[in-house]
Amino acid sequence: MKTLYDKLWEEHHVTQLDSGESLLYIDRHYLHEVTSPQAFEGLSKKNLKPWRLDANIATPDHNVPTTRGNNFTSDLINDEISKIQVVELDKNCNKFGIKQFDIQSNKQGIVHVIGPELGYTLPGMTIVCGDSHTSTHGALGCLAMGIGTSEVEHVLATQCLKVSKLKNMNVRFEGVPQVNVSSKDIVLYLIGKIGTAGGTGYAIEFSGSYIDKLSVEGRMTICNMAIEAGAKVGLIAPDETTIDYVKKNSFLDDELFNQAKQCWKSLRTDDKAVFDNEIEIDVSKIKPQVTWGTSPEMVVNFDDPIPTIIDSNEESKKNVELARSYMGIQNESKLSDLVFDKVFIGSCTNSRIEDLRQAAEIVKGKTIAENISEAIVVPGSGLVKEQAENEGLDKVFTDAGFIWRDPGCSMCLGMNPDQLKPHERCASTSNRNFEGRQGYLGRTHLMSPIMAAFTAINGTVGDPS
Amino acid sequence: MKSNSEGLIIDGVVAHIDRDNIDTDQIIPTEYLKSIKKFGFEDYLFDGWRYKDDGKLGVTKEERIIDKSFILNKEPYNESKILLSRDNFGCGSSREHAVWALRDFGIKAVIASSFGDIFYNNSFKNGLLPIILDKNEIEFLFSETKQNVLELSIDLEKKEIIYNQKCITFEVEKHLIDRIIFGLDDIDITFKDKDKIIDFEKNRISTRPWIFK
Question: Where does the Aconitase A/isopropylmalate dehydratase small subunit swivel domain start and stop, copy by copy (chain B) (predicted)?
Answer without folding.
Answer: 11-134
